Amino acid sequence: MWMGRMSRRAFALAALSVPVTAQGAAARSQGVARSAEGLGGCSVPRAATAGRPRRGTAGMRGVWLATVANRDWPSRPGLTAAAQHRELIGHLDRAVRDRLNTVIFQVRPTADALWPSPYEPWSEYLTGTQGRDPGWDPLGTAVQEAHARGLELHAWFNPYRIANHTDVTLLAASHPARTHPDWVVPYGGRLYYNPGLPEVRAFVRQAMLDAVARYPVDAVHFDDYFYPYPVAGQTFDDTAAYDRYGGAFTSRSAWRRDNTDRLVKEMAVGIKRIRPGTRFGISPFGVWRNASTDSRGSDTHARVQTYDDLHADTRKWVRHHWIDYVVPQLYWNIGFAAADYAKLVAWWAGVAEGTKTDLYIGEALYKTGAAGQSTAWQDPAELSRHLALAAHYPQVRGHVFFAAGDVAADPIGAMARVVADHYG
């Protein structure tokens, strides 16, 4: 079973060696020179409190700010630049009021960009039309304004998702997926880049590292999407790539995991080379493998296992310190039979113990008070109990809440309870 994880899906879905594609010239004409200049035409007020967060004392107190399908920001496509800016500042100010210290800002939701990228088009979630210049630089402004408030700004990228539909003609004319149709795999009603092609991995790495080169982001952040979540009765068609590149592997699954490993390792190297000191973090689905599948796995009964279904060996990345931090999405309540929050915190603490990878826990704020959720999620104290439980594990160095819209709405006061109980 999906164990409630599809609720987030319903919300969240609706080095530099590759030559620049045709998108490059078009994007450069869309105001790349503004990349470090903030709003570009609108005044950008600066907060009085400057500086950077010190997680050594406070730990990670983070929030995801999702832009795909206008989940959290902007509230709808087509707002003026000034209105988008006001909403963005509102989220940053709310994070400060709730004593958070990190905003994880989704800047590449669907093979597009929330900055003037020379490789990919402007995101449709800004203007309603992919490729249309919004008249300002959201990522550049977010970095500047977050730092002015003492917040870290982590740039959140989705590596392979192209679109939440299968019609390539709906993409901007200069989109790399249109100029390289051989890179594209339709699956489950969506379009994805094929992770099995070396040129795809090189391109997406190049597109993401462009933001790292332009802006002093505090970290690069991936979520749980590598190979897509399985869809019953459908096959992710990467046969041609497997026939060409998979000969040295015992199975297609092993080859796919190696493709994902390569992206993670190469991205880590690129980040450190371009901007030393910038961290690299990943937020995977909370179950690596069930113990019934692998004795090293967790005491869970999840239908989805990251290692087997998303072809992402998240445990390896932590143990080998390929990433600086990991934020497993433990989106279940304490005592949930198929995936008990308490058991998973203990399991992940054991994985992180003795490593150089920081462990933070992803928290399902979006479930609190939501219709259709279990009784546990109707209790404003559930999330506060999560933090109290995790505090018994020294490996757990903080928490990240999904997501900014829910921090603002807080329908039953669960976030207010967390702040009062733990962030005083």
TrEMBL record:
Keyword presence, Signal: yes
Domain Glycosyl hydrolase-like stretches: 60-377
Position of the signal peptide: 1-22
Cross-referenced Pfam families: GHL10
Organism in which the protein naturally occurs: Streptomyces pluripotens
Protein's UniProt name: Glycosyl hydrolase-like 10 domain-containing protein
Disordered as annotated region, ranges: 36-55
Bias-annotated ranges (Low complexity): 45-55
Keyword Cytoplasm carried by entry: no
Keywords, alphabetical: Signal
Coiled coil: none
InterPro entries named in the record: Divisome_Glycosyl_Hydrolase, GH, GHL10
PANTHER family named in the record: GLYCOSYL HYDROLASE DIGH
